[in-house]
């Protein structure tokens, strides 16, 4: 499926198999745990979408919802072993984890089988926060967070 993204407008749009347009937007500037939407959000999102696609100006909003995404401070996932024996982690993917599931699963299986992280995911280790070695992954997300 195709997803169209504007990193400068912080929005994305795709089309469902039923023909509906599914649109989304960026993060709140502060941490909240509410999944309530608002008229301000819808107006901002639709304004940006019509900047991208003026022909959608008369499209009606049928429904809206909000959700939470698990994001790390550097927008990169946490992958690999932890200090707890036998405990591995693969989290913090935000809005783009579903696209990385095939390689994430394969890489984590290799990590567990060999008890060692492959080079590809070493920069995503949990200890990077303690070591002050953050990974800048803003461009990898489906929305420019």
What would you note in describing this structure?
By secondary structure, the protein is α+β, with helices and mostly antiparallel strands. It has two domains: 3-56; 78-140, no CATH class. 22% of the residues lie in helices and 15% in strands. The protein has two helices and five strands, in the order E-E-E-H-E-E-H. The chain has helices at 39-52, 97-114; strands at 3-6, 11-15, 21-25, 78-81, 88-91. The strands form two sheets. The chain has a three-stranded antiparallel sheet with strand order 1-2-3, covered by helices on one side. Strand 2 and strand 3 form a beta hairpin. The chain is elongated and about 55 Å long. Residues 6-110 form the FAD dependent oxidoreductase domain. It comes from Pseudidiomarina aestuarii.
């Amino acid at each position: 499926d195709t997803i169209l993204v504007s990193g400068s407008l912080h929005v994305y749009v795709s089309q469902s198999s039923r023909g509906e347009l599914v649109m989304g937007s960026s993060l709140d500037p502060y941490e909240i745990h509410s999944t309530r939407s608002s008229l301000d959000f819808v107006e901002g999102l639709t304004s940006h979408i019509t900047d991208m696609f003026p022909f959608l100006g008369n499209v009606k909003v049928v429904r809206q919802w909000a959700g939470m995404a698990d994001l790390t401070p550097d927008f990169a996932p946490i992958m690999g072993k932890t200090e707890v024996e036998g405990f591995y982690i693969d989290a913090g993917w935000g809005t783009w984890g579903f696209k990385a599931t095939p390689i994430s699963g394969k890489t984590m299986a290799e990590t567990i089988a060999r008890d060692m992280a492959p080079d590809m995911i070493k920069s995503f280790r949990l200890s990077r926060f303690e070591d002050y070695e953050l990974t800048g992954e803003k461009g990898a997300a489906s929305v420019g967070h």
